[in-house]
Structures
1.
Amino acid sequence: MDEQLRGQPVTAIGTSNQIAGELSVDLTNPQRSSVGTIQVNARTLETDQNFRNRAIQNEILQTGSYEFITFVPTEVAGLPNSLAVGETITFQITGDLTIREITQQVTFDVTATLVAADRIAGLASTTVLRSDYNLVIPSVPSVANVSEEVLLEIDFVATAQ
C-alpha cells in the first residue's frame, strides 16, 4: 500500500513465509483441479519498518486476537482443457477472504507455470479496500495519505506430496 512517510512517498510491502494451503491438480483434466483453504499467519507479516510492524500487529490487524487471515475458495474459473510441462496459464480464484472476522468475496487473478509434472509456481493477486475490513490506520505524525487500496499477492510454489 502507498503512504507518505516523513513527507516522502513510500510503497509499504508486507511479507510472510507463514502461508499454508492445498492445491489439487488434475493434469489430465485441469478443469477438475481445486484449491483448498489458504491461511496466512498475520503475526508473521513484516515490512521494512519496525514501528509499522507494531502498528499492523497491535492496532490494524490486532493479531493478538486474530492470528490468521483466511481465504476460502468457492470457484476456480478459466482453467484450460489441458496443461503441459513448461506451459504458463492464467485463471481466477474467487472466494471468501476473512480479516479480523470480516468476510468479503474477492477474486484473485492467477498466473501459474507447470514447472515439472510435480511442481507448479505462480503469482495470485487481488486488490481490496481497507474500509471493507474496517482496517483503520492509527494517527501518527510521520505517516500520511495511506492508500485505501491494498494489493494482496501470493507468490507460491506447490509440489506434489
Note: The two ends are 35 Å apart (CA to CA).
2.
Amino acid sequence: MQILFFRYSFILSEINYKTLLYKKNKKAYNSFIIYLIKEGKKTENKDKKNITRKKIINYVLNNHVTSKAGIAKELNLSMPTVLANVNDLLEKGVLEETGEYASTGGRKAKSIGINKSYCHAMGILITANHIEMVLVNLGDEIIKKDRIRLKFTAELSYCTEVAQKVKTFLEGELAKDTLLGIGVAIPGIIDQKERIVLKSHALGIENYSLRFLEQALEIPVYFENDANAAMLAEKKQKYPNAIYLSLNHTLGGAFCIDGKLFRGQNQKAGEFGHMILVPGGRKCYCGKSGCADAYCAASVLTQDNRQSLDAFMEKIESGDEKVLQTWNEYLDHLAVLISNLRMAYDMDIILGGDVGGVLSDYMIPLGEKVMAYNGFEHDVSYLKNCSYKKEASAVGAAKYFFTKHMGEL
C-alpha cells in the first residue's frame, strides 16, 4: 500500500489529503484507496504487457523467421497472449508474414518475421580525423555507410559541418518518419544527463558541451562512449554477461551485466586500456607508464598510423620476420590482459575493434598464450569474435533507438 501511495502521491496535491486521513471522512478515504489500487493494477498490467511484447520482438529478431505456435512454446506463453500481441504488432507493421510452413495435415501456419524497413536509425562515430556514418534497419543490417575525413575541432563550425554531412548522407534514402534518431559514439567519458564530454584524450577536449551538436542535428540524438556503443552492437541475448575489448587506435572496453551496460560510479567502468600491464613500462598518452593501451592498442601495430593495419597483416602473411616478432609480442601482452580480465570478471570476452576484426584467423595461437596464464580452465571458449568487424560503435549507437522504441510500443 505504501508503494501505491508513493506512485500516485502527485494526486494528493489536488486533494485535501487531511480530510482523507480523518476518521470522520472514512468514505472519501476508502474511495481514494480503491482508486489507487485500480490505477496500480492498470500500471502493473501495462508493465507486464510491455515486457511480454519486448520478449516476442526479441525472439523474432533473434530467430529471423518463426510462427505463433513457436513463440508460444519457446517463451512459455499462452496462445491467446501470443495471438493478441502478434496480431497487434502485425497491424502496427513491426512484424510481417513472410510465407507459410509446410502443412502437417491441418491449416498451414504462417511464418512471421521482423519488418526490417519498419524503422531506421543512424549511427555516427566521431574520431580525431574522421566521421563514420551508418544507416541501420530494424534487422540490424547496415543499408548505407560512409567514412569522411573531417578533423575534429571544438568550434561551433564543426557541429554545423557534421550536420550538413548527415543531411547529405540521408538525402533520398528513406521516409523521414521512419528515422527514429541519430546515435553518436565518441571516444571519451560522457555525462549523458548533462550532455557533456567530461574528458577525451583522443579528441583533446574536457568538459565539452554536446548540446550544440544536438541542436544542429535537429532530430533525437543519443550520445555514447565508443566502446560502450560497440558493446551495444552485440546481441544482448547472446552475451547477457560479457566484456567487450575494443582494440582500436586506442584501447577501450565495456561490459554488460544481465544485458545492461555497467557504467560505474563515474562513467569510467571498462577503461581497461589504463590498467597497468607492465609496471614502469612504455609511456602512455594518459601520462602513466605501462598501461595496457601502450601494448595492446592497434597503434602498436600501425606505428601510430605510419602504416595501415591491413598493410601490417599482409606483412605477416608474407612472413616478414620483424613484423612477425612485433605480432608475437603483441599477442603475448594481449594474452596477459585477457587472462587478468577473465580472472577478475569470469565473463565471456568479446574481441572487437580494428584488431578484433582480424583476430579470427589467429584465435588458436592467442588461445594457447592465454591458457599459459590460466590454470583454472581447460579451454578458451569464453573468447568470442565480435559481430561487426567494422562500424561497431556507429551501429551500436544507432541500435539504442530500436531498443527504446520497442519498449514504447
Note: Residues 26-63 form the longest helix (38 residues).
3.
Amino acid sequence: MSKNNDIYIENRASSAAKKINKLNIPDEIKKQLIDKKVFDFWFNNKELRALSDNIDIAGGESIQYAASGNYDNHTALIICTNMRVMIINKNMFIGGDFTDIPLNMINGVSIKTRLFLSDIQITNGATNIFLNDLDKTAAPILADTIKSMSKNYQQSIQNVPVQNTTDSTQDMIAELKQLKELVDEGILTEEEFSAKKKQVLGL
C-alpha cells in the first residue's frame, strides 16, 4: 500500500470517526470501528444498529474490519470479526436479512477490481458468496482481513492440544498389572483387587 494511499485512508478514517461517535450504538462498537479505521458505511446506519444486536462482545468477539457493498442486489454492511463474517441488510421494504459465515468454513477469498468499485467472492464450502460494488480502497482491506482472520482461526483450531489417551491407557494397564501381581503374591485378596480395578477404570 502506497504512502499516498495510507494518507488517504487516514483522512477518510478520521472523518468517519466523527460520524461514528454520533451514532446511537454501544461505545465498545464505536471504539472497535474507529480503531480498525473503518470508513465506508455511509448508508448503513440501520445495519450498524443491527450489528450491535448480533455481535457477541461479551463472548470475546471483536470487529476486525467492515465495509459497505451490495449483496443479493441490496445494500449491505459486511463485517469481518475474529470469529466470522457477517453480512447485514436492513432493507426498509423487505425487513432485512442476516448472513453468517464462520471463519473455519471459508475456503477462499478473491477480489476483482473495476474502474471505480471492487467485488469480493467468498467461497464457503461448495457455496460462493458474491459481494459487489465495494469501495475500491476498502475492498482489498476487507478481503485481506477475511483471508488472514480465516487462516489464523483455522490454525488456532488445529493447534488446540488433544488429550493423549494413549499414555493414560498405558498407565492404567501398568497399574492393573501391579495389582494382579500383588494378588498372585497373596498381598491382596480377589475382592480387594476387584475394588481397586473398578477404581482404576473409573467404574
Note: The mean pLDDT is 87.
